[in-house]
Amino acid sequence: MVLAVLLNCTKCGEVKPVDEFHRESRNTLRHFRRTQCKKCDYLKQKKYAEKNRAKISFKDVAYRRMRLLNYPQDLFDERLAQQGNVCAICGTDTPGGRGQFHADHDHKTNQPRGVLCHNCNIALGNFKDNPEILRAAIDYLQRYSEAE
Fold this sequence. Notes:
Elements lengths: L5 E3 L6 E3 L3 E3 L9 E5 H16 L4 H12 L3 H10 L19 E4 L6 E5 L1 H9 L4 H17 L1
Antiparallel strand pairs: 1-2, 3-4, 5-6
């Protein structure tokens, strides 16, 4: 005879089966499960994310860009204006991602380059900023687009 383990959610107060609770490696008193059920935990995390998303202000982004990338805000604004307020690679005026353009920089020298949309910034990162890999990708695309 198998007994179903039931736990009480500390948030909603409902008694639920153990599989309705996320695993928790540090909690030995509750069968290694969290004290809140999955539904309550999801709602808590969603509320936290919505509240804290607003904390990332313009000043925070500019500060991190300067501190981590050596890319001052005035240089960022200047480069974006020189590019016509569009991505330096694809020319889109819609940055995508979290709704702002990215300051591109050389990862070896940490020197600022241009301002990119989310997709182009991610693409360069995935190609490891390596021109040979990018050329190979171009050759690959041309080879298969000519065949059609």
